[in-house]
Write a structure and sequence with these properties.
It comes from Sphingomonas yabuuchiae. By secondary structure, the protein is mainly alpha-helical. Helix content is about 50%, strand content about 5%.
């Protein structure tokens, strides 16, 4: 399951994806209000997203945040990995944080591992194949 932190990050990024590309940066206060994210959590989330180079920020009275690259080049997978870490449900199938399971006799014969590899691959395919632009376009089409 996605944590509340990931849902907040996705909502904030989806909101920023709808902002004009050539417009001014969006203030944290506005992002918090429009994306319905508590400001206290948003500050930490935006710092993580900025650290992952998904956001740019500008200080000062007219400062705020904007996407670091076009919305079609930021996937939902990028955001979730930044906030949550690997997409794998078990460590033995993670591509970025592999660890053998302590109680597994044989990775090659483990039915759980094989099933979780398929889950990881399909999850990654969907999340990495869905950009912020895709998600906001679907949202607009549904409205």
């Amino acid at each position: 399951m996605l944590t509340q932190r990931s849902r907040y990050a996705l909502r904030a990024m989806l909101f920023l994806a709808e902002m004009p590309v050539d417009g001014p940066p969006t203030s944290m206060t506005r992002i918090a209000a429009e994306a319905n994210v508590p400001r206290k959590f948003l500050e930490l989330i935006l710092a993580d997203l900025k650290g992952a180079q998904l956001l740019d920020s500008q200080r000062g009275k007219m400062g705020g945040y904007r996407l670091a690259r076009p919305a079609h080049l930021i996937s939902l997978g990028d955001i979730i990995r930044t906030i949550e870490g690997p997409l794998a449900l078990v460590p033995c199938v993670s591509r970025t944080a592999y660890r053998p399971c302590n109680d597994c006799k044989s990775e090659a014969d483990c039915a759980i591992r094989h099933a979780m590899m398929r889950v990881r691959d399909e999850t990654a395919r969907i999340l990495d194949g869905t950009s912020l632009a895709d998600a906001t376009a679907k949202k607009l089409a549904a409205a």
